[in-house]
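Structure (tokenized):
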């Protein structure tokens, strides 16, 4: 077996088992310990793994995040986000005061709002534009600094303004969710989201299946802050047990 083939197989083993040892590599591929070490070094140079004492693990911290527009038009997740957004919109009632964060899934939920007489606070210029086309919705666009690439408004002024609001429901997305909570690669946006959570009676998290098991740099909150989680696939049993422990209402959106 060529080294390239072994490296692919090693990554597949890591995906299934989370850790691989020198002994595992020697037994699986019938190679020497020196060859096993060289394979691990190669994967580390590629940024695929982290070396540990006697083996390797997959990195637990995700660093790459596509731009807002790339995420919005990602064909692999757009359909899932649309069905999640459609279900989220059904949870709204006429007259609800709402907070909407600047996630792509929340934007797709905003497009499908059919209820009326809402007061909406948001830090998303795109969501504000969408809701401006609908009748009977009053929009409060938070002030602050615009992050051009990811299209959210953040900063001290944003957080200060949020302190003056209280709403019935918060619709929020996430880049990553694990049993430890929700995380975000952008610390600035994370502080805004934390304040949003404090402003809402009910927190509704929208997260497609690709967000599970991923961890980013900045921790926003633990799972105890979430009241309802809407996703497109059943989480694994371990995650469902954690959600049950925190009394989170899990809703799985289905396509047409």
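Design, position by position:
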């Amino acid at each position: 077996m060529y080294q390239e083939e072994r490296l692919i197989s090693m990554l597949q083993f890591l995906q299934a088992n989370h850790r691989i040892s020198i002994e595992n590599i020697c037994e699986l591929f019938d190679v020497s310990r020196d060859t096993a070490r060289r394979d691990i070094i190669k994967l580390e140079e590629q940024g695929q793994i982290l070396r540990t004492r006697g083996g390797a693990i997959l990195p637990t911290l995700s660093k790459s995040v596509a731009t807002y527009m790339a995420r919005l038009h990602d064909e692999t997740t757009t359909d899932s986000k649309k069905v999640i957004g459609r279900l989220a919109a059904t949870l709204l009632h006429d007259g609800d005061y709402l907070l909407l964060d600047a996630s792509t899934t929340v934007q797709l939920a905003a497009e499908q709002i059919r209820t009326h007489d809402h007061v909406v606070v948001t830090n998303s210029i795109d969501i504000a534009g969408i809701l401006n086309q609908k009748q009977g919705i009053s929009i409060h666009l938070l002030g602050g600094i615009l992050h051009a690439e990811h299209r959210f408004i953040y900063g001290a002024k944003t957080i200060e303004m949020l302190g003056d609001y209280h709403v019935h429901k918060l619709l929020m997305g996430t880049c990553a969710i694990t049993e430890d909570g929700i995380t975000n690669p952008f610390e600035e946006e994370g502080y805004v989201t934390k304040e949003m959570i404090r402003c809402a009676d009910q927190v509704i998290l929208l997260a497609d299946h690709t967000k599970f098991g991923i961890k980013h740099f900045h921790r926003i909150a633990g799972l105890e802050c979430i009241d309802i989680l809407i996703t497109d696939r059943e989480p694994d049993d371990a995650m469902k047990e954690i959600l049950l422990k925190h009394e989170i209402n899990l809703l799985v959106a289905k396509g047409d």
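Reviewer-requested clarification: The chain has two domains: 3-57, 68-252. The domain at 3-57 is CATH 1.10.10.10 (Arc Repressor Mutant, subunit A).
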